[in-house]
Amino acid sequence: MLAGIILVAVAHPVHGQQQEPAPEFAKHLFAPELIFKYTRQIELQPAQRTALMQALREVQIDVVDLQLQMAEVAGDLTAELEKAKVDEAAALRLTERILTLERDIKKRQMTLLIRIKNLLTPDQQARLAAIRDREARQENEPE
């Protein structure tokens, strides 16, 4: 589930927003879905799979907690903004809290992606990069 959350957060724009290209550093990291999809091709070892699942669980717990906190603060911000006269200082404090929570979520996601990369051997990383590049080329080919 977390893997899906991470992919959605990184790969899909919010409704109405245009999708931005992935940052340059993203080509050096590997989404959990890619690893699970190609477990056999990269010869993922049982110990690596166990470590990957543990890392996913740890981040999932943290991220869900942060998302719940963010939803609560977003509700407070919405209530403040619904007022005829908005308390600017209060609204900005709530906005700052939301931005901090978003940063914390992204930091946890990046931590996960770094841990995933560190679990993989250089050969596995090279195989995944080749698979990802091949898939990207296929997606960009005109039909």
Outline the structure in words.
With 143 residues, the protein is mainly α. It has a domain at 48-128: Four Helix Bundle (Hemerythrin (Met), subunit A). It has five helices and no strands. It has helices at residues 2-11, 32-37, 46-82, 88-119, 122-140. The radius of gyration is 19 Å and the shape is elongated. The two termini are 31 Å apart. The model is unreliable at 1-16 (pLDDT under 50).
Biggest β-sheet: count, sense, barrel?
none
CATH class of one domain: Mainly Alpha
The tally of strands reads 0
| CATH-defined architecture of one domain | Up-down Bundle
Q: Which secondary-structure class do the elements indicate?
A: mainly alpha
Radius of gyration: 19 Å
The share of residues in helices is: over 70%
CATH topology group of one domain: Four Helix Bundle (Hemerythrin (Met), subunit A)
Mean pLDDT: 87
Cα shape: elongated
What is the helix tally? 5
What topology does this entry show?
Elements: H1 2-11, H2 32-37, H3 46-82, H4 88-119, H5 122-140
What can be said about this structure in brief?
The protein is mostly helical and 143 residues long.
Q: Which keywords apply here?
A:
single chain, about 140 residues, mainly alpha, Four Helix Bundle (Hemerythrin (Met), subunit A)
